[in-house]
UniProtKB/TrEMBL annotation:
It catalyses: tRNA(Leu) + L-leucine + ATP = L-leucyl-tRNA(Leu) + AMP + diphosphate. Residues 228-430 form the Leucyl-tRNA synthetase editing domain. Its main location: cytoplasm. It comes from the Bacteria. One of its GO terms (molecular function) is aminoacyl-tRNA deacylase activity. This is Leucine--tRNA ligase. Residues 432-563, 652-692 form the Aminoacyl-tRNA synthetase class Ia domain. A motif ('KMSKS' region) lies at residues 653-657. Keywords: Aminoacyl-tRNA synthetase, ATP-binding, Cytoplasm, Ligase, Nucleotide-binding, Protein biosynthesis. Residues 47-177 form the Methionyl/Leucyl tRNA synthetase domain. Belongs to the class-I aminoacyl-tRNA synthetase family.
Length: 888
RNA sequence: GCGGCCGUGGUGGAAUUGGUAGACACGCAAGACUUAAAAUCUUGUUCCAGUAAUGGAGUGCGGGUUCGAUUCCCGCCGGCCGCACCA
C-alpha cells in the first residue's frame, strides 16, 4: 500500500487546529483594546458554572457568540468577547461534604479542567480578562458595591417571612421558588421568620418595567415574562369602616360588639383595580392570613377550624388554582363608602392572598369571576353595574360568566353613564375627597432577599454590634475574606461554626467594642449581576476600571438560555441601575438607558435520543448509552454489550441520568473543534433545540473535508481578494451565485439565523467544487467562501486562507462586500399561473413591458391547454414576480 | 383556567411586504470508480395515478378574505413554554 503522490493533501484537524490556536495566542489577536478608535462591540455569552466538564450546551452557546464576535470583528468593530467563571455556589459545598475536599480546591480544579477544552474549541476570547467570581478580587469589589448600595438606601435589613429550603438549608428569593419548591434542590419550601438582608429592587419596579419597551432586540417572550413578574397594577386603596353587627344574637356578634367597643374607628383597607364597580360590591373578603382573620381564629373555634381547612389545600400552584372557593362569614359588617346606611358582610375567603395588596378585597360578583363563583356558592347578591354595549339595563343578567369588559356604568349613583376608565377616575376622585382612600399602584415584585446561610459565597461586609446594630465594614478594611479552614461536620453554615472568624479580634467600627461578623453570605445571583461590567473594567487583583467598564457597556449581544429570563436578567438590570445611581457606572452615552444588555438571544438546547432496555420500564432507570445501541433491520434496537432489546425513548436535553450525553472532548478528538462547532450551528434554528445525531456529525465532518478539497484543487495564482470584474459565461454565473450566497448568509448572521447562513455556505461550496476554471472568478468565490466560514470554522478557514495565499490572518480580513450588480439578472424566469395554479414559465428580459408579457403568457402552450374553453377574464402581471391568468 | 409560541416530505428545516411550497442538509434508492469495501462523485427522492408526457392532491383540521394564502382573519384539534385565584 503506497501513498498516491498525486492524492490531495488530507486535512488533519488534530494537527491544524492547535497550530492556529498557538498562532492566535502568540499574536494575542483576541485582546480587546480599551483605547481603540474603532466602534466597540461587546459580545457576551452567559458565563459558565465550573462543574468541571463542558457539555454540548456550552459548545452551542459559545459557538453562537463566537460567530457574532468574529463577524463583527470582520466588520471593523473593536470586539470585546471575554470569558470567566460563575464559581460561587452550592455544588462546591455539596461536593465538599460528599468527598471531604474543600470547596475552593474543588472549584479551582474544575476551572482548570474546563478551561482546557474551552480553549481547545478555538473561540475568539480575550482570556486576559478572565476571572472567577470566587476570586478575592472579585468579591472584594462586590463587597464595595454592597456598601455603596447601602449608602444609597438600596440595602436594608428586616425580619421577614422567608422561603426556607430544608434540603439546602438556606433561604431562597421568591424568584428562586418554582411551584413551591426550591429551584435547585426541588424540596418543598417552608415559610420561616428570619433576619434578612434585602436589596431594594422595588425602588426600580417602574423603571425596570418601562425599560423593557426600549429593548427591541430582546425576545418578546422574555420581555413579557419580566413584565408579568414585575406585575404592575394601578388602582385604589379603599377604607371600609366597621358597622354594627346586625345579627340578633350569636357568639360572633358578642365578639364583635366587644371589639367594636374598644376600636370605634376600626375598619378594613382593601386594594382594587376596579373602584368603578364599587356600587356592585356585595361583600368584603379577607385572606385567611389577614390580621383580623387571625384575631378571630384566636377567639372563635369555628374560625380557627376554617383557617386550618384552608391550610390543608396543597401548596402546589395547580392545587391552589383549582381548589374550590371556601368562605367563612365573620358576622362583621362594614359601611359602604358611597351608599349611606348600606353595609356589607365581611367573609374570610381562601382565594384572597395575604401577599398582595392589603390582603383584603371587596367582592363585586357581577364583574369578577372569582367573586361571582363565591357569591353563587354562598348566595350573596349579584348586582351588575357595568352594562355591555347593546344590552338593555332592564333585562341584563350576568349568569355564570362575570363581565369584565368595557361598558357604561349603571345602578351606580354619581358614576352612572361613565365608561370604565372615566368611572375609575371619578370613583378615585370621590374616595380621595371623602378621605376613604387614594389611588395606589401595586407591584407583584418583592424586594430581593440576599442572605444565604452558606459558606461558599461572598461574605456580607457587616459587623453586628450589641450597641450600634449592623455596621458596615469600612472600605479600607475590605475584603472580608473567607477563611480556608472550615468544617462541614455540623449542619448549617460553617462560617457560623468557625472557631475564630466570627468574633476573634472583631470590633465595632463605630464604637470599638467587641462585636461579631455577619456570617451570612450573599445570594450567588448577585455575582452574575455585574460580571459583564467587571470584564469591561479588566477586574484583577488591583481592582477594576469602572470608566472602561462604562465605555464597553451595554453588552451589544448577549447569548444564553431562556431559563434565566426572569432571575438573572432581572437582577442584572436592577444592579446596573444601582451601579449607575451609585456613580460607579455611567451609561449616559447609551441609547438603551440603564440597560446592561442591548441585544439578547436565547438559544435552544442540545438534545439527544434516549434508549432504555425494553424489558424494564423506562421509569426504572434502565437507560443505556446510545453508543451501545444498534438498529436492527426491522427498526427495533438492540443493546450491543448484552444483546437485550432496547426501545427508543424521547429526544431530550442531554443529561447524565438519562445517559444521552455526548462529551465534547471526544468529538473534538475524533473530528476536531470546527466540526463540533459547525454541527451545533447547522440545521436547526438557533432559538430551537438541536438534536445531536451521529449522522449529523459525520455530515459536518464531510463538509469540512469538502471545503478543504476545493482549496486543494485550486491552483490559480490569484489571491482570495481577487475581483473577476470582466467575468462571463460560467465564471459570471459563479460570481452571481457567490454574491447572492454572500448576501443571504450575511443577512442570516445579522438576524441570528445561522442555519440559513449554513445553507448558503453549502450551496457556494457545491458550486465551487463543480467549477473547473482556475481563474479570478474561482478565487473571488473562494475568498468569499473562506471568509464566510471563518466565524463558524475558524481553524479550517485560517488553513484555507493561508493555503490560497491570503495575507495575514483571515481573522483580520475584512468581511466580503456584496457587489449589487451581481444580484440582478438581465433575463428572468416568470412563473405563469392559470387561476392561481402554476402551469408554465417564461424566460424574458427583466424589463419587458406588461402588455408584451401578457401576449407571451397567453400564447404559451401549457397555458392554452389549461385555459381550454374558458374565457380569460383578467390577467394579473406582477413585474418580476408572477403572471396569473383568471379564466372562467 | 389565562397568556404566548408553534404545527410544512421518512427526518432537521427553507420560503422578502401575500406571488414558482419543499432551498440546504440528513436518510434512502440507483449508478460510476474499486477484486471488494470505505471514501468520493453522478442521478433521483412530497404523495397518488401513469413506462412517460402529464394529470390530481398537498403546509394540523374546518371556514373566510383575495386574481393568488405556509403567510392575513374566524373557529376547532394537537404540542411546547410561561403565569397561576395578583383583586
Amino acid at each position: 500500500m503506497s501513498e498516491n503522490p498525486n492524492a490531495p493533501e488530507k486535512y488533519n484537524a488534530a494537527e491544524v487546529e492547535p497550530r492556529w490556536q498557538s498562532v492566535w495566542k502568540a499574536r494575542d489577536v483576541y485582546r480587546a483594546h480599551d483605547d481603540s478608535d474603532k466602534p466597540k462591540f461587546y459580545a457576551l455569552e452567559m458565563f459558565p458554572y465550573p462543574s468541571g466538564r463542558i457539555h454540548m450546551g456550552h459548545v452551542r452557546n459559545y459557538a453562537m457568540g463566537d460567530v457574532v464576535a468574529r463577524y463583527k470583528k470582520a466588520q471593523g468593530f473593536e470586539v470585546l468577547h471575554p470569558m470567566g467563571w460563575d464559581s460561587f455556589g452550592m455544588p462546591a459545598e455539596n461536593a465538599a461534604i460528599a468527598t471531604g475536599g474543600h470547596p475552593k480546591d474543588w472549584t479551582y480544579n474544575n476551572i482548570d479542567e474546563m478551561r482546557t477544552p474551552m480553549q481547545r474549541l478555538g473561540f475568539a476570547l480575550d482570556w486576559s480578562r478572565e476571572f472567577a467570581t470566587s476570586d478575592v478580587a472579585y468579591y472584594k469589589e462586590q463587597q464595595r458595591i454592597f456598601l455603596k448600595f447601602w449608602e444609597k438606601g438600596l440595602v436594608y435589613r428586616k425580619t421577614a417571612k422567608v422561603n426556607w429550603d430544608p434540603v439546602d438549608n438556606t433561604v431562597l428569593a421568591n424568584e428562586q421558588v418554582i411551584d413551591g419548591k426550591g429551584w435547585r434542590s426541588g424540596a418543598v419550601v417552608e415559610q420561616r421568620d428570619m433576619d434578612q438582608w434585602f436589596y431594594k429592587i422595588t425602588n426600580y419596579a417602574e423603571d425596570l418595567l418601562k425599560g423593557l419597551d426600549g429593548l427591541d432586540r430582546w425576545p418578546e417572550k422574555v420581555r413579557t415574562m419580566q413584565a408579568n413578574w414585575i406585575g404592575k397594577s394601578e388602582g385604589a386603596s379603599i377604607w371600609f369602616g366597621f358597622a354594627e353587627n346586625t345579627e340578633t344574637s350569636s357568639p360572633k356578634k358578642e365578639l364583635f360588639d366587644e371589639a367594636l367597643a374598644t376600636d370605634q374607628d376600626g375598619g378594613i383597607e382593601v386594594f382594587t383595580t376596579r373602584p368603578d364597580t364599587l356600587f356592585g360590591a356585595s361583600f368584603l373578603a379577607l385572606s385567611p392570613d389577614h390580621p383580623y382573620s387571625k384575631w378571630l381564629a384566636n377567639n372563635l373555634p369555628e374560625a380557627e377550624a376554617f383557617r386550618a381547612e384552608c391550610a390543608k389545600i396543597g401548596t402546589s400552584e395547580a392545587d391552589i388554582a383549582t381548589a374550590p372557593k371556601l368562605g367563612f362569614d365573620t358576622g362583621l359588617r362594614v359601611k359602604h363608602p358611597f351608599v349611606e346606611g348600606a353595609t356589607l358582610p365581611v367573609w374570610i375567603a381562601n382565594f384572597v392572598l395575604m401577599g398582595y395588596g392589603t390582603g383584603a378585597v371587596f367582592g363585586c360578583p357581577a364583574h369578577d369571576q372569582r367573586d361571582l363563583d363565591f357569591a353563587r356558592k354562598y348566595d350573596l347578591p349579584v348586582k351588575a353595574v357595568v352594562l355591555p354595549d347593546g344590552e338593555d339595563a332592564a333585562t341584563y343578567d350576568v349568569g355564570t360568566e362575570a363581565y369584565t369588559g368595557e361598558g357604561k356604568l349603571f345602578n351606580s349613583g354619581f358614576l352612572d353613564g361613565l365608561n370604565k376608565s372615566k368611572g375609575i377616575k371619578a370613583a378615585i376622585h370621590k374616595i380621595t375627597e371623602m378621605d376613604f382612600g387614594e389611588s395606589v399602584t401595586n407591584y407583584r415584585l418583592r424586594d430581593w432577599g440576599v442572605s444565604r446561610q452558606r459558606y461558599w459565597g461572598c461574605p456580607i461586609p457587616v459587623i453586628k454590634c450589641g450597641d450600634c446594630g449592623s455596621v458596615p465594614v469600612p472600605e479600607d478594611q475590605l475584603p472580608v475574606e473567607l477563611p480556608y479552614d472550615i468544617s462541614f461536620e455540623k449542619p448549617g453554615n460553617p462560617l457560623d461554626h468557625h472557631p475564630t472568624w466570627k468574633s476573634e479580634g472583631v470590633t465595632c467600627p463605630t464604637c470599638g467594642k467587641a462585636a461579631e461578623r455577619e456570617t451570612d453570605t450573599l445570594d450567588t445571583f448577585g455575582d452574575s449581576s455585574w460580571y459583564f461590567a467587571a470584564f469591561g473594567g479588566s477586574l484583577s487583583a488591583d481592582g477594576m476600571d469602572w470608566d472602561a467598564a462604562s465605555k464597553w457597556l451595554p453588552v451589544d449581544q448577549y447569548v444564553g438560555g431562556v431559563e434565566h429570563a426572569v432571575l438573572h436578567l432581572l437582577y442584572a438590570r436592577f444592579f446596573t441601575r444601582g451601579l449607575i445611581d451609585c456613580g460607579l457606572l455611567d451609561l449616559s452615552h447609551s441609547q438603551f438607558g440603564g440597560e446592561p444588555f442591548a441585544g439578547l438571544f436565547t438559544q435552544g438546547m442540545v438534545t439527544h435520543a434516549t434508549y432504555a432496555l425494553a424489558d424494564e420500564s423506562i421509569e426504572k432507570d434502565s437507560w443505556v448509552l446510545p453508543e451501545d445501541v444498534d438498529a436492527n433491520d426491522d427498526g427495533t434496537f438492540v443493546h450491543l454489550p448484552t444483546g437485550r432489546p432496547v426501545i427508543k425513548g424521547d429526544i431530550i436535553k442531554m443529561s447524565k441520568s438519562k445517559k444521552n450525553v455526548v462529551d465534547p472532548n471526544e468529538i473534538i478528538q475524533g473530528y476536531g473543534a470546527d466540526v463540533a462547532r459547525w454541527f451545533v450551528l447547522s440545521d436547526s434554528p438557533p432559538e430551537r433545540d438541536v438534536e445531536w445525531t451521529e449522522s449529523g456529525v459525520i455530515g459536518a465532518w464531510r463538509f469540512s473535508k469538502k471545503v478543504w478539497n476545493v482549496v486543494s484543487d485550486t491552483t490559480s495564482a490569484e489571491g482570495p481578494l481577487a475581483v473577476a470584474s470582466d467575468a462571463s459565461g460560467d465564471a459570471l454565473e459563479l460570481r452571481k451565485l457567490a454574491h447572492r450566497a454572500l448576501e443571504k448568509l450575511t443577512a442570516g448572521i445579522e438576524a441570528f439565523r445561522f442555519n440559513t447562513s449554513v445553507a448558503q455556505i453549502y450551496e457556494l461550496t457545491n458550486a465551487l467544487s463543480k467549477y473547473k476554471g482556475q481563474d479570478a472568478a474561482r478565487m473571488e468565490a473562494l475568498g468569499i467562501l473562506i471568509r464566510a466560514i471563518a466565524p463558524f470554522m475558524p481553524h479550517l478557514a485560517e488553513e484555507c486562507w493561508s493555503k490560497v495565499g491570503g495575507e495575514d490572518l483571515v481573522y483580520h480580513a475584512p468581511w466580503p462586500v456584496v457587489d449589487p450588480k451581481m444580484l440582478v439578472d438581465d433575463t428572468i424566469t416568470l412563473p405563469l399561473q392559470v387561476n392561481g395554479k402554476r402551469r408554465s414559465e417564461l424566460n424574458i428580459p427583466k424589463d419587458m413591458p406588461k402588455d408584451e408579457i401578457e401576449k407571451l403568457a397567453l400564447a404559451d402552450e401549457a397555458v392554452q391547454r389549461s385555459i381550454g374553453d374558458a374565457t380569460v377574464r383578467k390577467i394579473i402581471v406582477v413585474p418580476g414576480r408572477i403572471v396569473n391568468i383568471v379564466a372562467k
